[in-house]
Amino acid sequence: MVLKRATLLHLRIPFSLFLMPFFLFAVSQSEQPDLLKLVLSFVIIHFLFYPASNGYNSYFDKDENSIGGLEIPPPVDKELYFTSLFLDFVALVLGIFIGWEFVLMLLVIGLASKAYSHPWIRLKKLPFTGLFTVVFFQGAYTYLMSYMAINNSGFEVLLDNQVLFSSFLCSFLLFASYPMTQVYQHEEDGRRGDLTVSRVLGIRGTFVWTTLVFVIGAILFFIYFNIYYTLHIACLFFLFLLPTLFYFLYWFYKVVHNQSAADYKNTMRLNLLSSLSFIGLFGYLLLMKYVN
């Protein structure tokens, strides 16, 4: 069966790659990665689970204005709903080849993702409950799920301090950045009755939130790299993030003078810059591991 163009667009596969840095972070921390499971888990997470989650969310949101990775979303229908469930099913089946722990974690994060969007629960209506759900599952949980798959390990990794610190940092990054992904959707969310954290904070408040939380997160990353790597790597962290920082400050300046600048295009540019910065950083860590 050939899927409709609207269904393919709502899966937002390119947008799913914005979360690739967390997977790459897990790879960079892995001493002896299982190459087959590394590739399989990457495909499952980024080409099956995330698109399924995107599609499911789109089906119940029925957005008319811009959403993450889709400036003009087309109307949705039942094909998108069933396609998202089918992708979830395929992800679980393929996950069996990685291990039962991976399948269990995939099932749990899938249910959490559906609870965020489904009208019976719709955590999206609860600003801080919704925020903490996304921050935990897309951050620490996804990092741990990826790390376990890549290293062919089980829940014993929860006893590893470095792994736990790394997973915490992933969530803290989202804690800073996730409200920014909602900053241009206030009108749409208000019309639907969704009270996101960004709506609670307001447009300028969202920028202040991201600034303050990210400063704390940057300090924690510096401490992490100084402990587990070197002072040189800790300083390189800031160098890799300079493009993102400069763009964010420039955008903040524009928004202070004109709140209409808090729009879809600027949000996607910041997302892209941030993702590329962290991909560059974690890619460098991975390269140094094999060079040395």
Tell me about this structure.
The chain has 292 residues and is mostly helical. Helix content is 74%, strand content 0%. The protein has helices at residues 5-11, 13-16, 20-28, 35-61, 78-95, 100-117, 127-150, 161-177, 186-192, 197-201, 203-228, 231-257, 264-291. The longest helix has 28 residues, at 264-291. The protein starts with a helix and ends with a helix. The mean pLDDT is 92.
Give the amount of beta strand, in percent: under 5%
| Low-pLDDT residue spans | none
Gap from first CA to last CA: 49 Å
Counted beta strands: 0
What sort of overall outline do the alpha carbons produce when their principal axes are compared? globular
Number of helices, counting only DSSP H or I runs of 4 residues or more: 13
Proportion of residues in helical segments: over 70%
Mean pLDDT: 92
Structural class: mainly alpha
Main beta-sheet annotation: none
Order of helices and strands: HHHHHHHHHHHHH
Kindly provide the radius of gyration, computed on alpha-carbon positions and rounded to a whole number of angstroms: 19 Å
